[in-house]
Amino acid sequence: MAHGPAKGIGRWLYTTNHKDIGSMYLWFSFAMFFLGGVFALVIRAELFQPGLQIVEPNFFNQMTTMHGLVMVFGAVMPAFVGLANWMIPMMIGAPDMALPRMNNWSFWILPFAFAMMASTLFMEGGAPNFGWTFYAPLSTTYAPPSVTFFIFAVHIMGASSIMGAINIVATILNMRAPGMTLMKMPLFVWTWLITAYLLIAVMPVLAGVVTMMLMDIHFGTSFFDAAGGGDPVLFQHVFWFFGHPEVYIMILPAFGVVSAIIPTFARKPLFGYSSMVYATASIAFLSFIVWAHHMFTVGMPLFGELVFMYATMLIAVPTGVKVFNWVTTMFKGSMTFEAPMMFSIAFVILFTIGGFSGLMLSIAPADFQYHDTYFVVAHFHYVLVPGAIFSITAAVYYWLPKWSGKMYDETLAKTHFWLAFAGLNITFFPMHFSGLAGMPRRIPDYNPLWADWNMISSVGAFLFGAAQVLFLYIVIRTIVSGKQATDRVWEGSHGLEWTVPSPAPYHTFSTPPVIKDEDAHG
Ligand code: HEM
Ligand SMILES: [Cu+2]
Question: Which of 82, 236, 366, 402 is least surrounded, with the fewest CB atoms within 10 Å of its CB?
Answer without folding.
Answer: 366
